[in-house]
Structure formats: C-alpha cells, structure tokens
Design a protein that fits this description.
The protein is α/β, with parallel strands linked by helices. The protein is built from nine helices and 18 strands. The chain folds into two domains: about 200 residues, Ribonuclease Z/Hydroxyacylglutathione hydrolase-like (Metallo-beta-lactamase, Chain A, 4-Layer Sandwich); about 130 residues, Rossmann fold. Bound molecules: zinc ion (2 copies).
C-alpha cells in the first residue's frame, strides 16, 4: 500500500485517512459511511452515520435511532480533506458506491452491487475511478444470471400451476432486498400474497420511500380457503420451522422454492431441501463484475469479499494491478455461508 492511498484497511474497517472516515466499518467508529443496510455492512454502535437519502427508511428500520446524515445520489460533501459522494449500486433500495476524491485522485468503493435491472432501486451507475474497490461474491465464471424477466415468468408459471392444484407456493428468500424485488416482479393477479413479519417490516420502509409493491397479508390475516392460491414470501429461517405447516391445504403441503444466485449450481436446491430453485441474485454475476470494473477505467482493483482469487488472476492477466482487503463483509444475507457449504468445485471451469 502506498502512503497516499485514499482507502486503507484498519482493524475497524475500510478507512479513508483524508476524510477521517470509515466505509461500512465492523467495529464502532466516530464516522461511518454506509453503502447499504444489509447487516454485514450496516452495524450498530457508530457515533455518526452517512448514507443515501433513498436508503434512510430501510437503514432506520434495521438500526433504529441513529445519528444519520443523508446525501442524494451524486451530491458532494466535503469531509476533512476529502470530497465524498454516493452513487447508485443497484443492489437494494438506497445502496451506494462511495466515491472519494482527494488531490486529483479518485477511489470508488462499490459496496455490494448488481448490473441487472431491479424495479425496487436505482440502477447501477458506472463511476470513473483510478482505483476501484469491488465486492466479488459471485466472482467465478460459472455465475451467469438469466434475465430477471425470464426468472419472474418462471416464478409466475410455477405459482399458477400450484394454485391450479390447490397448493400454496412458498418462496424462501432474504427479507431485505430480494423479497421486495420478487414482490415487485410477480403477477399479483394469480392469487393473494402472504409475507412473513420480517418481510412486512421492510415492505413498510420501502412504501415510505415511495417504492410501489403489491398488497400483501400476514399469515394470520388470510382465510383458510384462500391458502391454496397463495404465494408466501418468507426468510429461509422460517421455511424449516412450524411456521410453514400452516400453509398445508387439503391438496397437500406447500411447494417450497428458494430464490438466490446460489441456485445457479446443480445440487444447491436439493441439498437445501427445496422443491424448486430460482436463480435471482442481487449481486453482479461474473460478466457483470467484469463490465463494472472495465467501466470504471481503474488501473488498480482491490477485492473485498467473495471469490477474490479468480477475479484477481483474471484482472492481472489483463495488465491491471490487483489487491485485496481482508474484510468482515459477506457474513449475512445472500452472501452467507450457505454458499460455502455448496460443492461448487465440480462445475467451476479451470
Ligand atoms: Zn448486501
Ligand atoms: Zn456484501
């Protein structure tokens, strides 16, 4: 690391000396810039928070009463000797890349991001930088996502078929981001939609932020007779519990699907005990990572979390400098250890 690096690794997290600030720190600090409200990036205990205005409601829904200053996307703020701005990352509502400028040098820290369209958040915006600090959750060539419209068509067809047979359809997915993206993407005319309480809490934060989602019910609110046509959206933890049994109808137990980028791998669905897997991720796939990196024009790329070795090798072969920050991101939501439990070795091209 050179002495004039704009972002360095400290025990508390990614640190910008010029602005005396941290990006998504994992230990309590004085000043935290938060890329998005997933638990591994937005933690409690910091004295002051800076995040996007679009993400304010979801951040407060997760962290409660915090001292929060917000910026519009693209708005610039001078902090110490650094100029800081936040740019859409396309990951979840309010998610941002952090751009830091100091003495003509520009560094961008991506947070988590995706390139694919998402009706519930602002689209990823490429930002030019000298150095790009990127996530790499799905940084293997095997990860290529189908078009989201095609996945939503599959989900609708599956729901319709189950409804015709009188069986409830349960989709397990992460309560923040994925759940709302699915709600916005499905055909709500097929039947009633039930959400788990954890999803409902975030739905309210989305609604307060102006994101339109279809009407939903809590499990306690729906009539027994309507269950056979219902789509149920719940976090994975709920789908193994007794909570799911209430959706059994005369036609049988509910069909249970899982929606995640990990469903791209054969065997992941089976090992999770799901009837069906939908490949829907809020992270960039391999081509998405490469196109995002190229669009920054960066000569140096530092990888924070995920499969960093294959991505670094690829970039180095193309003449870019690469590095790594050993972070504590990736411990929650879609990046969680379920991915590590999967045997992906058989499908990874050498
Ligand atoms: Zn995230
Ligand atoms: Zn992450």
């Amino acid at each position: 690391m050179a002495a004039d690096d704009l972002i360095v690794l400290r025990p508390e997290g990614l640190y910008c000396p010029a602005g005396d600030l941290f990006i998504d720190p994992w230990r309590p600090v004085e000043r935290a810039v938060i890329t998005h409200a997933h638990a591994d990036h937005a933690r409690r205990g910091h004295a002051r928070y800076l995040a996007t205005r679009a993400g304010e409601n979801v951040l407060r829904a997760r962290l409660g009463d915090i001292t929060l200053e917000t910026l519009d996307y693209g708005e610039r703020l001078r902090i110490g000797e650094a100029t800081v701005s936040l740019h859409p990352a396309g990951h979840v509502l309010g998610s941002a890349q952090v751009r830091i400028e100091h003495r003509g040098q520009v560094w961008v820290a991506s947070g988590d991001y995706k390139i694919a369209p998402d009706a519930t958040c602002a689209a990823f915006e490429p930002v030019r930088a000298h150095v790009f600090v990127t996530e790499s959750t799905f940084g293997l060539p095997v990860y290529r996502w189908p078009a989201p419209e095609a996945v939503f068509a599959e989900i609708n067809a599956w729901w319709r078929t189950n409804a015709e047979a009188g069986r409830a359809s349960v989709i397990a997915c992460y309560a923040f981001g994925k759940a709302q993206r699915i709600l916005a993407g499905v055909d709500a005319s097929i039947g009633p939609i039930v959400v788990h309480g954890a999803v409902a809490t975030l739905d309210r934060a989305y609604a307060a932020s102006g994101v339109a989602l279809p009407a939903t019910h809590l499990a306690t609110e729906i009539e027994r007779g309507a269950l056979g046509h219902a789509l149920v959206i719940a976090p994975p933890a709920a789908t193994s519990a007794t909570w799911i049994r209430r959706f059994t109808t005369r036609a049988g137990p509910p069909e249970i699907a899982f929606a995640s980028g990990w469903m791209r791998l054969r065997g992941a669905r089976r090992r999770g005990g799901y009837d069906r897997g939908f490949v829907l991720s809020d992270h960039a796939d391999w081509p998405g990572l490469l196109s995002a990196i190229e669009a920054t024009g960066a000569e140096r790329v530092i990888v924070t979390h995920g499969y960093e070795a294959p991505l670094r090798r690829y970039l180095e072969e193309r003449g870019l400098q690469s590095g790594r920050f050993e972070t504590q991101f990736g411990g929650s939501e879609e990046e969680a250890a379920e991915g590590e439990a999967l045997d992906h070795s058989a499908e990874v091209s050498p």
